[in-house]
Amino acid sequence: MSVKRERNQDASIYVGNLDEKITESLLYELFIQAGPVISVRLPKDRVLKTHQGYGFVEFQNESDVQYAENVFQGIRLFGRTLKINKVGTSHSAATTTATSASTTKNKNGEDSQINANEPKNNTKPNSTANDKHLVELGCTLFVNNLDPMVTQKLLTSIFKQFGELYKPVELLDSKNSKYSFIYYKNFHDSDLALEKMNNQFILDKKINVDYAMDKEKGTKHGSQIERLLMEKAQQNNYTL
Q: Strand 140-146 relative to strand 208-211: parallel, antiparallel, unpaired?
């Protein structure tokens, strides 16, 4: 008989005001941006089998909890603003209320008790590291099949036409050709560059342009989650 593992409260956050379309996999995709995620749980109504508008995310490291609070507080998913609260020992009342809500029919009453324990401070986080993480997130293009005669200066002059770059173009060599990473400040500009430059010729070779891979997750940048984070960064005037 397997023993149920207890969630590490100090490494967990409560996420409330969730739309019915939210799934555990979507929350996982969102919060893994802050750090390694151990588990995601959306307590479900015993009769309707639908989640009750809140859930819990457990991180591998307790240090990721505060970062997640700063980064994701105020993010909107399906038109609803997420309410995020550290579980931990200092929020035991909120945790107890949220846990008991899965066994009661008065969901609205329980939600209001949880919300009463959530922090009301909506000020922008002060961390420069957080700001930079948000601004850099995802707007990176990968360009390959470049002619061996292509230079960094030439690539920069071409791709700067579509928007401002937040750091210099990287130009690297492979066995038969060159490849490059182009770093934009926002998805509007990176989307435009992708649309205009994919399958175009630079010198004597047709280039391929796509979003770069996120090496940590093994998926391409440009996801909807990354775009939501960037939108929040722009709304709060985050800068490099």
A: antiparallel
pTM tops 0.70: no
Identify the pLDDT of residue 134: 43
CATH of the domain at 174: 3.30.70.330
CB 190 within 8 A of CB 220: no
Contact 142, 213 (CB under 8 A): yes
Range of the domain at 64: 9-123
* Inter-CA distances, 84 with 4, 47, 94, Å: 25, 26, 11
Residues 169 and 70 in one domain: no
Final residue belonging to a domain, choices 123, 154, 185:
123
Intervals of the chain under pLDDT 70: 1-5, 88-137, 216-217, 233-240
**pLDDT on residue 105:** 38
Last residue of a domain, one of 69, 96, 123: 123
